[in-house]
Amino acid sequence: MGRRQGLSGRGNALEHWLRRTILRELHDRAGGRSGTEMATVIEVSRSMAGYHLLVLKEGGLVGTVERGGPSGGCLYEARKKNDHELLRRLKATAAEDAQLRLRMKKD
Predict the structure, then answer these.
(1) Nearest to 39 by CA among 29, 50, 30
(2) Which of 8, 12, 70, 72 is the most exposed place for a label (fewest CB within 10 A)?
(3) Torsion of CA 83, 53, 65, 45, to 10 degrees
(4) Residue 99's Cα: distance from chain center in Å?
(5) Taking residues 26-51, what's their average pLDDT?
(6) Which CATH code for domain 3-106?
(7) Whole-prediction pTM value?
């Protein structure tokens, strides 16, 4: 079993505070965000945001929609927006995740 395959489970996808932060952001926004927009909003590098978006996508929690027009690319959108268990977990971990985010900013 490869590393990515091991990360593809929903539980594993939610174990990192940054992925929960990304998922909260996507749940709160209609229309999705690009990887670059997400990196800007959560104040991390594009590569870090891209990695965590990929883990969420492989876990089935995030999907992509191709963007038309000259810029191309894709937007990431939350799946399972009506999953009450998922929403409860995101709500229950929000305060702790905010503290971890603040600690990361200080470092």
Answers:
(1) 50
(2) 70
(3) 140
(4) 17
(5) 92
(6) 1.10.10.10
(7) 0.81
